[in-house]
Amino acid sequence: MGFIRKLAVRGYSKELKQMIDDLSKLSTEQIANILIVAVWFRAMLNIEGNLPVTENEGGELNPELTAYPILLKGIDEWISIFDKKGLQVKSFCFSIWVHTLRSIIRPELSDLANRMWGILMRSKPNWENVLTQLRDEDIQHGISHDVVLSTERHAKAILKRLPPKQLS
Question: CB of 151 within 8 A of CB of 61?
Fold first, then answer.
């Protein structure tokens, strides 16, 4: 492994360990909120065309992670936008995907990513309630009913495929 790659992996590993530590201090309800927000943002940005996504044969958006480097770049850009606007909670939620994609690209991070996903998956009993709350909040905020329902449908498809199979 090259020197630059080693430095990058060391930095990424440190960030991922901090994420695991932060998640470990939270209740399962709080963890569910973080995960569902991350999934909701990803689904919404996929639908709007602001993050790369492929389509299945039926024209439905593919919930699998694809185009890792391009997707990672897009998510990093959105995290920068959230940070600039002072939306650190949204940034933290969305960083789940950064850590996941980095570990797919750099397998030496996979053990840590699997630990993170182990913590996230324990919140599964709370997912449906949090997803319903997010859907209802978006509708109350005046977001198009069709957009919200499409986002919810894609979010549910993503949730069915968690943790991402590419981590195995």
Answer: no
